[in-house]
Structure formats: structure tokens, C-alpha cells
Amino acid sequence: YPSGNVAIIMTGDKDQHSLIVQEDELRTTKIRALFQSDGRSTCYYRNGDEWINMSTQGGQYLDQAGNRVRRWMWPNLSPEPHVPLSPIFISLNRHVGVRILAQDKIFVSFLAMGQQAKFNMGTRVQVSAGSQLPPAAQLGEDELLLLAFRVRILQLFDRMRGCLNFPSGEQWNKMQPPMYLINQAVKILELCMAADISDELRSSIKAIVNA
């Protein structure tokens, strides 16, 4: 961002990768969106509530009250008649926008100071007739909470090290947490998406890792 805060992080390799959009804030690493090359993606409102959630089967669009506004299935995975996806465009903030045109056309755009970068995080998953996608591994509620608190504690320890190394606070406030902590936070959010848990617990876990 023009402020110097990290806006977009790419992780992974050429076979499988993820794109993370962070909020333009100095002291937090709040995740605004997560896109994965395996077809799973989630966008969040500024307060951390889920906005758009997509999987290899389809997606849904929620309003800020948590009500489902739109739901769709990707054409190549749904043999039955379905409502076609109308193009979706949202602005995560003044610099980052997301445009969803099709399963293989999901664009993340970054614009600042006259410079633009565009990433296509869409993918097309081919599923043969009669086959099913493997179920996602799920964890219990207690396990998910423990993982979230573990990441939060590690985040606090990292911030404490920053305080000791830069007592004035002018430099450590600008430092990003280590990449392994960002990856762990993203992984927990992925597990929450796949787990059969309440929306309240899912929101609580998001708040813990994004605090």
C-alpha cells in the first residue's frame, strides 16, 4: 500500500499456491481475502465477517448481517439446470478489488499511485461422472480453538520481541509477523471453512487469529 503496509502475499509453488490480501493497517495483519489454486476462496468484510465463500462446487455471497444474498454452482460440476453466475465485483478497500466472472476467471486487482497489478486466481476443476471430491479433513471445536490460541500466543511473543528490539515503537509497529505465523493463521481459517462448526465459533476463531 502507499502507506508501506503489505497488501498482497503470495505463498506456495508453481503447482499449488495461495494469495492473501491484508488490510491496510499498521498494527494488525487482518486478512481481507484468501484465494487458493485448488478452488477454495473466501473474502471478508472489514469487521471479519464472511463476505464471499467459494469452493470447487460453487459459492455464496453474504450481506453484512450474515444473510445469504446469492448462491451458485459452477456449470461444469452441476448437471442440473442452475441459475448462471452474474458477474460479481467487490472492493475490499480503496486499492484492492475482486471480480468474479467464472470459476477460472477470478481476478484480484491492486491499484495504487498509478500502478496496477492483476492476478487471476481462478481454476477449473474437472470431475468425471460418478466421482466425488474427497471430503476435507475436519477437526473438533476444541482442537480448532486450541490451534487458534496457539497462533495468537505466538503472535504476541513476536510482538514482544519487536518491543524489546525497538523500544521506541516507531519501527516495530511497521514490522510484519514471520511468514510461518501468517501461513498458520491462513491454515486455521481453511480448517474452519471445512469444519462442521457453528457460525459463532467460526467468527470467534477468525477474531482470535486476526486480532
From TrEMBL:
Coiled-coil region(s): none
- Domain annotation FAM194 C-terminal: ranges: 1-174
Q: Where does the source fall among the domains of life?
A: Eukaryota
Transmembrane stretches, start-end: none
The record's listing under Pfam families reads: FAM194
Q: Do you know which InterPro entries this protein is assigned to? A: FAM194_C (IPR029281)
**Which protein is depicted?**
ERIP6 protein
Record organism: Sylvia borin
Give the organism's phylogenetic lineage. Answer: Eukaryota, Metazoa, Chordata, Craniata, Vertebrata
